[in-house]
Write a structure and sequence with these properties.
The protein is mainly alpha-helical. The chain contains 11 helices and 2 strands, in the order H-H-E-E-H-H-H-H-H-H-H-H-H. It has helices at residues 31-59, 65-71, 89-102, 109-125, 134-144, 158-174, 180-189, 203-211, 217-234, 239-249, 257-268; strands at 79-80, 84-85.
């Protein structure tokens, strides 16, 4: 007969028993671990943000119009070995863009005269074709300096008329520049004169570029784009403009399809 187990041989399996467990106890994270995981990275990010803030303060905030114009008279954006744009080119590009952005808030007649005078000076003496898009931005800014604002008066003082004539003459001069993108920018900038008497002076040059098959396609497209709004604002019955745009629209060369499209849009205007 098998003997019965003695009480000492029976394991206690009740809920309150002291049976050994195979699951190890989990210790709470120590303060040292919390500091390593959270506090130290937070301090590193805070220091980095502080350094960036100080650098931003040292570099200065958004430049004023006068500061941007003054900096555009600093050279240093030319290409190196016809490949790399110079280190000053980026800052000059930002300043040129700043001028365009500042004009969106509106300008008085005297401000327009001063700005146009300085932009012509910068174009003639402080820009060249080897600085990326800087000259192109300045050309567009020059055109926009006399963009007609319906909320303002005609601005037809003798000084304003003289300033507009000077600005238009500068644009037409750069429309014959040796650089293709400069010619394109100068032609497109004339669009800003739409509705002003001086825009009539641009029409012969625009027609010349449009009809010149030896010109780069982008230049001819710029001329076609500008002719529509300028001619429509000056004289909707311009027969020369309509006839030449019609001729461009009948171009059957596959490579000129974009020129055909631009001519059609301008003709519709």
């Amino acid at each position: 007969m098998d003997s019965l187990p003695m009480p000492a041989d029976v394991k206690d399996t009740s809920a309150g028993g002291n049976a050994p467990s195979s699951t190890p106890l989990v210790e709470p994270p120590s303060v040292k671990l919390i500091v390593r995981l959270f506090l130290i990275p937070l301090l590193i990010v805070a220091v980095a943000m502080g350094i960036m803030f100080l650098i931003g303060r040292m570099a200065g905030g958004e430049p004023t119009l006068d500061e941007a114009l003054a900096r555009l008279k600093h050279r240093g954006g030319e290409r190196t070995a016809d490949l790399l744009v110079g280190p000053a080119s980026k800052q000059r590009y930002i300043d040129a863009k700043t001028i365009v952005d500042k004009m969106k808030s509106g300008m008085s007649e005297s401000e327009r005269i001063t700005l146009a005078t300085q932009l012509v000076e910068i174009l003639d003496n402080y820009t060249n074709d080897d600085e990326g898009d800087i000259r192109h931005f300045v050309l567009l800014a020059l055109g926009r300096s006399w963009q007609k604002d319906p909320s303002q008066g005609a601005m037809d003082s003798p000084e304003a008329l003289d300033s507009r004539q000077t600005a238009m003459s500068a644009l037409l001069k750069y429309a014959d520049d040796k650089d293709v993108t400069t010619r394109k920018a100068a032609l497109l900038a004339t669009v800003y004169f739409a509705g002003r008497e001086e825009s009539k002076n641009a029409i012969p040059k625009l027609l010349e570029k449009l009809n010149d098959a030896t010109q780069d396609l982008d230049v001819r497209m710029a001329a076609a784009t500008a002719l529509g709004p300028i001619a429509a604002a000056v004289d909707p019955g311009q027969k020369d403009v309509a006839g030449d745009l019609n001729a461009a629209m009948r171009d059957t060369e596959p490579k000129d399809i974009e020129l055909v499209w631009d001519a059609a849009l301008s003709l519709a205007q």
